Amino acid sequence: MSPPCLNCAAACTLNLETAQRIGTVGSSLVGGAIGAWRASYHPTSPLSMATSRFPLAKLPAAVIGAVSGSQAGSRVATVFFTQKSPPGEGTPWLCVSCGHAFRQSHSAF
Fold first, then answer.
1. Is the pTM of this model over 0.85?
2. 13 bridge partner residues
3. Facing residues of 91 across strands?
4. Are 61 and 40 spatial neighbours (Cβ–Cβ below 8 Å)?
5. Sign of CA dihedral 54, 60, 61, 63
6. 3-state secondary structure (DSSP) of residue 56
7. pLDDT in tens, 2-59
8. Is residue 36 a contact partner of residue 67, using CB atoms and an 8 Å limit?
9. What is the distance between the terminal CA atoms of the chain, rounded to a whole angstrom?
10. What is the model's pLDDT at position 44?
11. Where are the alpha helices (DSSP H) in 4-87?
């Protein structure tokens, strides 16, 4: 269960560890798709030919573009969440209401 915000006492907080995992995977997928598209894009080919079949000669370039784009997307997400994560120990939380980032220490049961 998410804790209330320490700044405004709102109950709508987001676990930043989970958001980082989702953001990194999403950024990798989007970066890979953009990299593959840039590597295989040819401005003189007609649109109908591009949608009907993929030229297999461009497959290695598209794969390399997808890998490099995926790595770049993952780095961007990691840097973003590293900057937004509050310092200290415990689980990082972000209040959706006021934008306050805080950590909740793990308590022993």
1. no
2. 95
3. 104
4. yes
5. positive
6. helix
7. 888 888 988 888 888 888 888 888 888 898 888 888 877 766 655 544 455 666 777 8
8. no
9. 15
10. 64
11. 16-40, 47-52, 59-84
Q: Is 36 exposed, middle or buried (0-12, 13-18, 19+ CB in 10 A)?
A: buried
Q: Structure tokens of 19?
A: 């958001």
Query: Cβ of 16: how many Cβ atoms within 10 Å?
Result: 20
Looking at the DSSP bridge assignments, the partners of residue 101 are 94
Contact between 95 and 10 under an 8 Å Cβ cutoff? The reply is yes
Look up residue 44 and give its two tokens. Answer: 């003189």
The DSSP output letter for 53 is -
Q: Give the residue from 105, 69, 97, 91 showing the smallest Cα distance to 20.
A: 91
The sign of the dihedral angle between the CA atoms of 82, 88, 91, 93 is: negative
Sheet holding 13-15, edge to edge: 13-15, 91-95, 101-104
